[in-house]
Amino acid sequence: MIAHLFHAPVGEHDTAVGVGTVGSSEAIMLAGLAFKRKWQAKRKALGKTYDRPNIVTGSNVQVCWEKFASYFEVDLKEVKLKEGYYVMDPVKAVEMVDENTICVATILGSTMTGEFEDVKLLNDLLMEKNEETGWDTPIHVDAASGGFVAPFLYPDIEWDFRLPLVKSINVSGHKYGLVYAGIGWVVWRTKEDLPDELVFHINYLGTDQPTFTLNFSKGSSQIIAQYYQFIRLGFEGYKDIMMNCSKNTRTLKEGLQKTGRFDIISKDIGVPLLAFSLKDSSRYSVFDISESLRRFGWIVPAYTMPPDAQHISVLRVVVREDFSCSLADRLIADIVKVVNELEAAPPTDNSISVHNGEESEHNVREMQKGITKYWRRFAHGKKTSSVC
Ligand SMILES: *Cc1c(COP(=O)(O)O)cnc(C)c1O
């Protein structure tokens, strides 16, 4: 189902090639390893050195790519970001590719801002470079979040196996796949893209089982849950849910814009999430807002952007199925409250303020009140997740 969703060239009677994993991180370890082995085999066959593999990504990659590079001894070559441009620039990425590049990893839905990278442009530029150089550098798409968003909301965006250089794609079942935590997927374009030597065959459980995973035993509950969601909701069901997420993101965006205090960093087309920064952070920072919002039971992360945009700091709200428009309204109201308080407070030196004992007691009481209120609503059957 997932291979078809991503337009893998599999016929009606072919078996798609892929594996269920604990999440996108494990999926990426496996996909990266497949690229490394393929590249090594090719270099060996040509009688060339194969001890300095590298991988090209944007500096906005999720930490699992840094882990892959470190654990599997591959140099990570990162395209740096700049203020106002928070995804990997395909032109710069292709410039960085050399004969030791095992693949270019691109993200469909940057973790930082939700923005889709331009996989089509990357594919086209890399095709040209491959033609000039005689290399055949492939592409991996890290679609951890976007893999279950783009096919439903933006079916015309070409980012998947419709592009010839895309050889593998990962997606997290526990993000927009709508399953509880512990499931990810990696799909290869064809059987040839996964080196045989990595697949182990065991028969001691009754039948031949090909395995390509980092661990062995694993619960099947997530796989059943994913299967259930697919057949229960279908394409239309996922589409409705993603459209609703997108609509609630818009509600949140408009509410934040109305406050006049924030710049919206995320794009309208992308993963339904909102990354935003303070227009004026001279008196208080996004970190202060994040800290204060905890009193109302919200955990809204604040962080700095990756290099070379690390001087920009943002808050991020991920809008999933259960983030209703009434929750969006409450979050906006709480943000306004927090910002007004921070504005009324005496100026600090812009570092996270140190509270005295009395103040932190007050904060704990406020937080408890917030939590109690939430649970009361819940206990009285007030919907916290509704379609609006
Ligand atoms: C979340 C995320 C990952 C890691 O996925 P897990 O399923 O949590 O292991 C990798 N890449 C991107 C772009 C992500 O957003």
Brief description of this entry?
By secondary structure, the chain is of the alpha/beta class.
Helix content: 25-40%
Total of helices: 10
Order of helices and strands: HEHEHEHEHEHEEEEHEEHEEHH
Lateral strand order in the biggest sheet = 1-7-6-5-4-2-3
Reported for the largest beta sheet, the result is: 7 strands, mixed
* Distinct ligands, ions and cofactors found in the model: pyridoxal-5'-phosphate
**CATH class placement of the largest domain:** Alpha Beta
- Shape field: globular
CATH superfamily descriptor of the largest domain:
Type I PLP-dependent aspartate aminotransferase-like (Major domain)
CATH architecture verdict of the largest domain: 3-Layer(aba) Sandwich
Q: How many angstroms separate the termini?
A: 29 Å
* Structural Rg: 23 Å
Which regions have little confidence, pLDDT < 50, spanning 5+ residues? Answer: 351-355, 384-388
CATH topology of the largest domain: Aspartate Aminotransferase, domain 2
Strand content: 15-25%
The counted number of beta strands is: 13
- Tally of distinct domains: 2
Average pLDDT level? 92
Class from helix and strand fractions: alpha/beta
